[in-house]
Amino acid sequence: MIVRLLREPLLQFLALGAALFAIYGLAGKREAEAPEKIVVSASQVTNLGDAFVRTWRRPPNEEELRGLIDDYIRDEVFYREGRAAGLDRDDVIIRRRVRHKMEFLASEMSVPEPSEAELAAYLASNPERFRAEDQLAFHHVFLSATRRADTIDSDSKQLAGILARADQAADATALGDAFLLGEEFRDVSPTKLTSIFGESFAKQISAMEKGRWQGPISSSFGQHFVFISERMPGNLPPLDAVRAAVHREWTNARRLEIEQKLYASLRSRYEIVVEQPGARATKAASR
C-alpha cells in the first residue's frame, strides 16, 4: 500500500513542491536581509584567464572571459547559499576536502635548511634508510626453458654431474645456452637480481655459499647453475655520497614534525567530548 502511494505522480509532485517551497522560503528570507556583496577582484579575473591558458594554450577572448567570470559568480552564489542553508554540515566529502586543504597549507610551510651537523646526525640515526645493499659477483650456466622444453630436466641432471667436478673456469657457453645478458654478473644487488631473474632466484642465490657450482635455480627464463666468486657486504656510505637523499628525508621528517605540532596546537583550542552509544559522554584528552 505504502509503496503504491509513493509511486503516485500526485504525491511525488507534492513532495517536489514542498522542497521547492522550502528553498524559495530560504531565498526570500535572505532577500529581506541586506544583500551580500560578491567582489570578483582583478587578481581573480587574472587567475581565471591564466587557468584558461593552461588548459587551452591560448588566452580567452572577451566572450570566453565573461563566461569564466559568470561561472565563478555562479559558484560563489551557490556556495554562499549552500552554506547559509547548512548544506556543508555533516557532509563527509566537504569535511575531508577542507581537512586536505588545511594539511596542504601546513605542508607548504617553509622548512629551514639543515646544518651539516643535523644531516650527519640524521644519517647516523637512520642508517638502514641509506645503507648500500649487499652485492655479489657470479657467473652461470644457463639452460633455456624454450629451447629445451622437453629435455630440460634430464639436461639439468647431466649438467649437475659435470659441474660437480668442474671449477670456476668451466666454459658456461659450451655447457649451456647463450643468455641475453651474458654469463657473468659483477656487483649486483638483491634488488637488481630480482628485477632480472625474479624474487625467488634472488632469495636462493643470496643464501648460497661462494666458491663452488650450485643449482639449478629456476627463473622465468629457464634453469641456472651459478658459481659465486665474490660477496661484498653493504655499508653505510659517507654523507657526501648520499647528501641529496639525506637532505630530502630530513626535510620530509621535519615537515611532518611541524604539521604534528600545528595540529596539536589547533586541537588544544577545543574541548573534545566523545559520546559513546549507551553511555555517558566522556571528555577526550585534548591538551
The backbone outline, from C-alpha atoms, is elongated
Number of helices: 12
The CATH architecture of the largest domain: Roll
The Rg value, from CA coordinates, equals: 35 Å
Element string (H = helix, E = strand): HHHHHHHEHHEHHEEHEE
Q: Give the low-confidence spans.
A: 9-14
The percentage of residues in β strands lies in 5-15%
Strand order of the largest sheet: 2-1-4-3
What's the helix and strand layout?
Layout: H1 2-6, H2 9-32, H3 42-56, H4 62-84, H5 92-107, H6 116-125, H7 127-130, E1 135-144, H8 152-164, H9 172-175, E2 184-188, H10 190-197, H11 199-206, E3 213-218, E4 222-232, H12 243-267, E5 273-274, E6 282-283
Antiparallel strand pairs: 1-2, 1-4, 3-4, 5-6
Structure commentary:
- It is a single chain.
- The protein is α+β, with helices and mostly antiparallel strands and 287 residues long.
- It folds into three domains: 2-92, no CATH class; 93-132 and 236-287, no CATH class; 133-232, Chitinase A, domain 3 (Roll).
- The chain has helices spanning 2-6, 9-32, 42-56, 62-84, 92-107, 116-125, 127-130, 152-164, 172-175, 190-197, 199-206, 243-267, and strands at residues 135-144, 184-188, 213-218, 222-232, 273-274, 282-283.
- Helix 10 crosses helix 11 (199-206).
- It is elongated.
- The protein starts with a helix and ends with a strand.
